[in-house]
């Protein structure tokens, strides 16, 4: 006994079979589209690192007062920069300074005013002297 497409019941059954087959094929296509994968990548052009200097000691001499300074004097201060909480490269840290009071020749004269030099030591600085006259030497390269 076969399916008689001349009767209403046969036409309904054939239609249901056709719709079911079409739905199955559409479902396979949808499954293929939603199960694909890709890899993503992102580049960061800049970031922020929060550096805490800690208490005054051999790794932070920025809090030691500089008193009795006269023209021609030099003062050395050391600070250790570290980023223990992250993986940021600190080799290109930029130091910016600004006068906290009214600008004077001390901060506006590039030739005769205050000069700041930042050095890096490949092996770590060796401190000598006592406050406030600390000096530093580098056994490695600067």
Please describe what this structure looks like:
The protein folds into 2 domains: 1-41; 48-142, no CATH class. It starts with 7 loop residues before the first helix and ends with a strand. The mean pLDDT is 76. The chain is mostly helical. It is rod-shaped, with a radius of gyration of 37 Å. It has helices spanning 8-34, 105-108, and strands spanning 125-128, 135-138.
What is this structure, in a nutshell?
With 142 residues, this protein is mainly alpha-helical.
Primary descriptors:
single chain; 2 helices; mainly alpha; 142 residues; 2 domains; rod-shaped; 22% helix; 2 strands; two-stranded antiparallel sheet
Cα(first) to Cα(last) distance is: 97 Å
Output mean pLDDT: 76
Specify the biggest β-sheet. Answer: 2 strands, antiparallel
Strand ordering within the main sheet: 1-2
Q: What is the count of helical runs?
A: 2
Percent helix, as a range, is 10-25%
Q: What is the tally of beta strands?
A: 2
Give me the strand/helix succession. Answer: HHEE
* Overall geometry: rod-shaped
The structural domain count equals 2
Q: Helix/strand-derived class?
A: mainly alpha
């Amino acid at each position: 006994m076969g399916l008689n497409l001349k009767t209403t019941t046969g036409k309904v059954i054939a239609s249901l079979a056709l719709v079911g087959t079409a739905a199955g094929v559409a479902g396979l296509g949808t499954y293929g589209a939603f199960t694909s994968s890709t890899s993503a990548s992102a580049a960061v052009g800049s970031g922020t690192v929060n550096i805490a200097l800690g208490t005054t000691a051999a790794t932070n001499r920025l809090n030691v007062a500089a008193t009795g300074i006269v023209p021609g004097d030099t003062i050395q201060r050391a600070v250790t920069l570290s980023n223990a909480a992250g993986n940021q490269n600190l080799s290109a840290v930029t130091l910016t300074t600004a006068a906290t009071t009214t600008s004077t020749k001390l901060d506006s004269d590039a030739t005769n005013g205050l000069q700041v030099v930042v050095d890096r030591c490949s092996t770590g600085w060796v401190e000598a002297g006592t406050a406030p006259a600390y000096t530093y030497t580098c056994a490695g390269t600067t």
